[in-house]
Amino acid sequence: MTAIDPALLKAYRASEYRVQAQPPFILRVGHASVPLASLHAQYGVVCSAYITACNPFGRQVDAALNVLHQRQLAAELNARGAVFFPGVGIDPSGSWLGEPSFLVLGLDEDQARTLGNQHEQNAVLCCDEKAVPRLVFLR
After folding, report:
1. Angstrom distance (rounded) from CA 77 to CA 18
2. In Å, how far are 32, 56, 104 from 76, measured between CA atoms?
3. In this structure, are residues 107 and 114 in contact, taking their beta carbons and an 8 Å threshold?
4. How many CB atoms lie under 10 A from the CB of residue 54?
5. Residues 108, 38: Cα–Cα separation, whole Å
6. Burial (Cβ within 10 Å: 0-12, 13-18, ≥19) of residue 81
């Protein structure tokens, strides 16, 4: 069970999680991703996570503050030596602005939960060896 507003849950599930790799691709909750499986194989990892530091707890904040939050997350990922690709979470209905995000290769669910909680997120997107993205709720 989660305390997240049902409308927000619906938006999370419907979103397109775009990854700016070469070539670019889109992750969708519950749908296997051949491009993600290829990235996993290329980098020798069995998991990844798609995470943002924008809009803590699903509340839209000033764009400059989101930029600062993303820079802090990027600095943490760089300090870990993580391999990550920029992305944007897009609400196809257009009712939510795109959120800059990162696909982090080799980031397991526990690590993704920790980072998501540190950055006050409602959820993170985790992918295992099957490359099927699933929402992991943090509250």
Report:
1. 19
2. 28, 17, 12
3. no
4. 24
5. 17
6. exposed
- Token pair for residue 87? 């992305």
d(CA 35, CA 59): 31
What tens digit of pLDDT does each residue of 3-59 get?
A: 777 877 888 888 999 999 999 999 999 999 999 999 999 999 999 999 999 999 888
Contact 77, 102 (CB under 8 A): yes
3-state helix, strand, coil in the chain (%, to 5): 35, 25, 40
Kind and range of the H or E element at 28? Answer: none
CA distance 26 to 42: 18
Neighbours of 89 (CB within 10 A): 23
- List the chain domain ranges: 6-137
Q: Which phi and psi angles does 116 have, rounded to 5°?
A: -60, -40
Interval 81-116: pLDDT, tens:
999 999 999 988 877 778 999 999 999 999 999 999
Q: Name, in order, each residue with C-beta under 8 angstroms of 4's C-beta and a sequence gap of 6 or more.
A: 12, 58, 122, 123, 137, 139
